[in-house]
Amino acid sequence: MLKNKKTNKSISPDTTQIKKKQKNEMAQNGSNSTVKLLGTWSSPFALRGRIALHLKSVEYEYIEEADVLKSKSDLLLKSNPIHKKVPVLIHGDESICESLNIVQYVNEAWPSKPSILPSNPKDRAAARFWAHFVDGKCFESIDAVAGAKDEAGRMTAAGNLMESLAVLEEAFQKSSKGGGFFGGESIGYVDIACGAIVGPLSVIEAFSGVKFLSPDETPGLVQWAERFRAHEAVKPYMPTVAEFVEFAKQKFNVQ
Q: What is the dihedral of CA 184, 125, 50, 47, to 10 degrees?
């Protein structure tokens, strides 16, 4: 009895309080809830969610949707009944849809460092602006190039895409301030947003023979894309150019 009593006294009140605090913080951050991510390996949008979860060191289950163009799982239809698209982040009983929304959610639900979005409100607003620019102007131009019905339409779309990339190049030069990423030395929200166009760009470059990212026109983006692909939070999840091209051939029945 005396030995057991002594053992109990060896646990200091401070240690008990620290453990309680850590447990409370985990509960507040959702760390004790089940986390799942629905996606497809070829989706540039699902890639965003995987990068964000990796950066925050979140343990999660990745669920691959076999072929969302032909069939959708019951879990996908239940968790995203409006758009019925990947990616979807499932955190406990909550479903979070849309890739940029998922990245912002992950950053807020797990507030530990590194922060994905800038802390300064002005910088954070700018980051969101450029992310929307990518999903608007850049992806619209990429889709237009890929879906052009004739050479004239393809050339017009390619010109619009090059203009959008030139604007993005200027934004990179200003916001990176000599660093390797849009926010400086660390990968962040704009990098994750822009990273989604790297795969689709490589595909249309392979099919068209046109280099949309070139050392002459977009030197900053060319180097940035190399660093992005090689980043530890990106490399395990991002398909190679050859894999992207082969997938596109099968999807669009192109030889």
A: -90
pLDDT tens figures, 103-132: 999 999 999 999 999 999 999 999 999 999
Contact of 127 with 145, CB cutoff 8 Å: no
Per-residue model confidence (pLDDT) at position 21: 43
Asked if residue 208 lies in contact with residue 145, where contact means CB atoms within 8 angstroms, the answer is yes
Q: Place 253 in a pLDDT band, splitting at 50, 70 and 90.
A: confident
The single residue listed with the structure tokens 């026109």 is 217
- Number of residues that this document lists for the chain: 255
Backbone angles phi, psi at 30, to 5 degrees: 75, 15
Contact assessment for residue 102 and residue 48, using Cβ atoms and an 8 Å cutoff: yes
CA-based radius of gyration for the chain? 22
Residue 145 CB: number of other CB atoms within 10 A? Answer: 26
Whole-prediction pTM: 0.86
Q: How far apart are CA 242 and CA 255, in angstroms?
A: 14
Contact assessment for residue 198 and residue 206, using Cβ atoms and an 8 Å cutoff: no
Taking only the tens place, the pLDDT of each residue in 217-231 is 999 999 999 999 999
